[in-house]
Amino acid sequence: MEEPCVITACQPADVVLATYNARFTHASLGLRWLLANLHPDPPSTTVLEFYMRVPVARAAARILEYQPRVLALGVYIWNTQKMAELIRAVRSADPALVIVLGGPEVSADPEAFPEYAAVDAVIVGEAEELFAVWARRLLAGIRPDHKIIQGPPPDLAGLRLPYDYYSDADLQSRHIYVETTRGCPFRCDFCVSGCEAGIREFPLDTTLAACCRLAERGVRTLRFVDRTFNARPGRGAHILDTLRPWADQGLRVHLEFTPQSIYREDLQKALCAWPAGALHIELGIQSFNESVSQRVQRPGIRHTEAALRFLLDTAQAEVHADLIVGLPGEDLDSIAAGFDRLLAHRPHEIQVGILKNLPGANLDRHIQPWGLHFDTNPPYALQSSSLLTNQELQRITQFAAYWDRLANHGLFPRTVPIILQGHRSSFVAFMHLSDWLFAGFGRTHSIDLHDLCAALFGYLTVELRHDRETVRVAMAADFCADGKRPKRSLPKCLRPV
Asked: Which residues lie below 8 Å from residue 20, measured CB to CB, with a gap of 6+?
């Protein structure tokens, strides 16, 4: 599919708002915020969402079909290079087009953007009010005195909510994003939210009413983008209680939690009221190394394991737990110990991510003391440190990709324990498999499932010398478990002898 998602269409349009989303299933909340707050008396506006597989030439052609006078583009870490190419394409075709940039990737250091010289303005930070003002000025021929436009954050109570701009098709097939707060109570050095001054809240009644309208329209999944949904437990409990009736109709809610502040009775009661698996909670653990956590100003980890036990066992939530590799002061042994400690709680997903020096984060003070070397291109991943070599980081990147496919997605729930058994460290055991798979395939992606099964069967029965029938039965059961793959399609190695 190469066609964009069109939120609104006017042809011709004075203004086109556009971005590249990471996937087709993602829906841009940022573009909808800008569109909603062009009122009253909005200029004719078309909103286009592309996804990463759409060629730049095709995206540029679709934008230019609307003959815009102002083109506003949302720039994120995942689409920076695509957006630079898109700007070159549309600028070449229409030199008079006014191009405005916004989004987190250009807010911290606008002049670092590859095509900064080719754009007319960059709006830094939260842009709803500023863009509404400057869109009208630019259409009137008024240019800013300085290319970089910055102002105070908007009064959240004064913003027009964007949620009615999700279409019925969006609600059925795409991730629907909602926010009830902006900012974060913490100051973690690795996070861009660490520079923000506390939490600001949208009016709860109007935001909840909008969420209920989405639920009434049949939304399947609501993803709250609040940095810390449980920062105010009472507020979080009220939101969950209000949305709870729709869980019986299949509503799933995604939330980002910190281990702190889960212990208020009203929040615990609200979490436990939801059906098993209806809540997907992203728990930012990052590291179990106390000294490392303190060094990067991450809140203490003493509540982490109790929070995991409560969310998994009592609330029966689906837990996605994050670990960051490469934090200053953490070596491979500490990373392995943290992974093993987390895995012992059996969260549904463990995401192992490499430390990134995101624009606007506060990692600079750690670079020299810990010998941190980062890629200068997005996503700015750590290349080496005084404690981790480039080769070790590459191996962990491969580890994370294979773990995501084999374990996180539930592809081999019976087989993964066989991979890990007999080893003192689950991290080390899976690293051995990861190294072996990469040596054979030379890649972590685009591996046919039958080829992966054959390789995994060979590893377990030849390399580790596990009983062939035990392995075959476990892998065959995993292969057919979801009902999508009938027994007749079993790979040859998994068929009964």
From this structure: 50, 51, 52, 54, 59, 78, 79, 82, 83, 86
